[in-house]
């Protein structure tokens, strides 16, 4: 195979013009990679989704492509926050299976690092994906790469893990990736709702919304979101104004968000929420986003209470959905148990890797 060349992909004015051909080819590369990894394309961006991502006002998204002759063999997506964390860049690498092992991934990553350095970004985060079958094949013996957070690890036998490690990235954390088939069987949700109510003894009331948070709960909702981000080390400047801007951006892109939140009846404040996101251009898959429960209200099945309510709301508004995906920290045993009760099955893990250019220098 001839040596590949890397260049920045031009984002077309629209997806119907002939100039969109390269953009559509790059999208197809990513789709083929996800089919090869997970056995389906449910985690792949559609052309319209990636096009919207390239016009996100809160994040600058750049795509680099690796060509062999005229064919795109791989791509690197570079996401750079514009509001907070402006020293950070997330890089997603996709290389066609038939081109693996020819140095294309390394060349794309090096080009992406050079690009983000030129934009004064100091930290790069990349993700590796590990289906359950691959982890089983790797076995439990052999050298492991420990994560800095959470106590998990990945096998050095994994080609993806070796690639990231050899490129100078440190494994920050490993997350459990799970899938839930929809709709849930029988009266499962009703049974789990009763269990949660027996635990918390009617101390909470659920409030739900689609796409837009009611004004009466907006300040509480922002407080919970911001507190969760602070726990993750992202203080941010999140406020109600930015919430409304984000909601409008989602509306314009066709995306939907379903939220169920728990009001503590004694105080009248929201103390927990859970959200599910739906893509704007497909109706068969959704993604479980954050579930946040204030510390004082943990241990009372509040997380189960609101997740059951949100899945009921999901069925009501989007009956065509067939798969719900989620990611969880392996150490969050309560939430993993809740998800198992809801019907989630482990599909694999993802590794979050980090390189700090300041430390490297």
Automatic annotation (TrEMBL):
What domain of life does the UniProt record list for this protein's source? Answer: Bacteria
GO MF entries: acyltransferase activity, transferring groups other than amino-acyl groups
UniProt xrefs under Gene3D superfamilies: 3.40.630.30
Pfam family, any one: Acetyltransf_7
Show where the N-acetyltransferase domain sits. 13-160
**Family matches, as InterPro entries:** Acyl_CoA_acyltransferase (IPR016181), GNAT_dom (IPR000182)
The family database entries (CDD domains) matched by this protein are listed as: NAT_SF
Protein name in UniProt: N-acetyltransferase domain-containing protein
Specify the species. Answer: Arthrobacter alpinus
Q: Give the source lineage, highest ranks first.
A: Bacteria, Bacillati, Actinomycetota, Actinomycetes, Micrococcales
